[in-house]
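Researcher: Quick test of sequence recovery. Tokens follow.
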């Protein structure tokens, strides 16, 4: 194998012209013969026993050329990439230029990792919100905790908004039951919007033991089988339940935490909320800085990298849907989309992610960042505590290379953040300017008031 030329093309692609010698091609032809002879029926010979010359005499000397090219191509292409020290992306498009007993000439066009020119990545400005935790924030968190510790109790009255009605229901389209339209002893929270619009409103006022028919028209964007159709649901209320919420006091604090008093619980909640918001503000600050870094990168991103990232995003979304029990094809039907359209929509965010990844890698290279074995092991321990697993179990799910990539990425982002300059967000700055102007105006008024009447 020899590389006749390596031509650089636009969009970070190269075209390799590769030549395979007559000797190497002859070896590939013989391999093709050994592979194919068992499938060829030659009069006078048992299957697989006919000599190569006999077969070539019957079908032509080129009978094994196509398979021989398929045999020789992978090794020739891999050797050419290695010789030219190319970092390829994706799979090549191969064009056969010539193929004779004297050898093979082919052209492989493939995307390569782009040359990246890193712009400014230190001293960048980005907004960072000031963290404030008010008493109302703590009270809201307490209310959430109280709601989670509430219980449903039965009541003997008509259904009201906010109640939970335990119902049996069955839907009919033109008098016939339709698939997925039936349920028994279903807990329906009235006002949750979990059922078709109009359904929950018509349950209000019903009592336990009462039955009635509810007229519903499905939305136009519903599943195709029922979209826009007028149907009837026969509904029976079996039970009416209301949420009983515990009082927020010292006893509540003892029940839901390790603290003896509500005051101690509130102090702890304030501390936790502050930490959460500081972390969120820091992440937002880092994201804004890294977006600037990515925007400042100069590179010719190959389409193959964007395509691969789009497919990766699509696969991740499929897994997310699957975890919720929703098949991807059902999602596409519900949203009236095709997979091609979904991938097309993912193209722009995929391009942004690729640029971000290239920026991070460029910083790692520029700063000679490295990750030690000790740092990788420490990250395994951190994940072990986070997911409440022993370290060996975590290592079964995550490879050391994945951890290394994550840690070095975090190092690059931290480096940018540590050198970044935090400024007040536009909203906060506007509020600060308004307060300053108000104070300035108040001072002027005060000075004016101090002057004698004749001077005013």
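Model:
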């Amino acid at each position: 194998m020899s590389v006749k030329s390596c031509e650089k093309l636009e969009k970070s692609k190269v075209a390799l012209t590769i030549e395979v010698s007559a000797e190497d091609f002859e070896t590939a032809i013989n391999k093709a013969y050994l592979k194919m002879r068992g499938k060829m029926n030659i009069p006078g010979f048992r299957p697989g026993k006919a000599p190569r010359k006999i077969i070539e005499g019957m079908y032509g000397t080129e009978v094994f050329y196509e398979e021989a090219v398929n045999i020789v191509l992978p090794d020739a292409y891999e050797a050419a990439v290695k010789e030219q020290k190319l970092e390829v992306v994706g799979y090549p498009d191969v064009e056969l230029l010539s193929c004779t007993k004297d050898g093979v000439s082919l052209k492989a066009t493939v995307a390569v990792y782009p040359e990246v020119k890193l712009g400014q990545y230190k001293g960048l400005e980005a907004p960072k919100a000031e963290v404030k935790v008010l008493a109302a924030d703590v009270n809201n968190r307490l209310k959430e905790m109280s709601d989670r510790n509430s219980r449903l109790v039965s009541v003997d009255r008509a259904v009201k908004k906010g109640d939970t009605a335990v119902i049996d229901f069955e839907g009919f389209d033109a008098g016939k039951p339709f698939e997925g339209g039936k349920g028994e002893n279903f807990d329906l929270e009235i006002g949750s919007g979990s059922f078709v619009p109009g359904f929950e409103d018509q349950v209000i006022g019903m009592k336990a033991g009462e039955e009635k028919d509810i007229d519903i028209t499905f939305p136009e964007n519903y599943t195709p089988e029922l979209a826009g159709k007028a149907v009837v649901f026969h509904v029976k209320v079996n039970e009416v339940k209301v949420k009983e919420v515990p009082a927020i006091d010292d006893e509540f604090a003892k029940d839901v935490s390790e603290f003896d008093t509500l005051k101690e619980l509130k102090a702890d909640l304030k501390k936790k909320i502050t930490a959460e918001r500081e972390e969120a503000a820091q992440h937002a600050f880092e994201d804004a800085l890294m977006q600037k870094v990515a925007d400042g990168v100069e590179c010719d991103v190959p389409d193959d990298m964007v395509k691969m990232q789009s497919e990766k995003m699509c696969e991740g979304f499929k897994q997310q849907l699957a975890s919720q029990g929703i098949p991807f094809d059902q999602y596409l039907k519900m949203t009236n989309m095709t997979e091609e359209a979904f991938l097309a929509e993912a193209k722009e965010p995929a391009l942004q992610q690729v640029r971000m990844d290239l920026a991070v890698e460029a910083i790692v290279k520029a700063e000679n960042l490295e990750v030690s074995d000790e740092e990788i092991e420490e990250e395994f321990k951190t994940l072990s505590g986070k997911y409440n697993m022993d370290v060996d179990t975590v290592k079964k799910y995550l490879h050391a290379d994945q951890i290394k990539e994550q840690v070095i990425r975090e190092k690059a982002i931290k480096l940018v953040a540590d050198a970044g300059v935090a400024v007040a967000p536009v909203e906060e700055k506007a509020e600060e300017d308004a307060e300053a102007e108000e104070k300035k105006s108040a001072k002027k008024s005060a000075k004016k008031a101090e002057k004698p009447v004749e001077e005013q």
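Confidence is low (pLDDT under 50) at residues 451-456.
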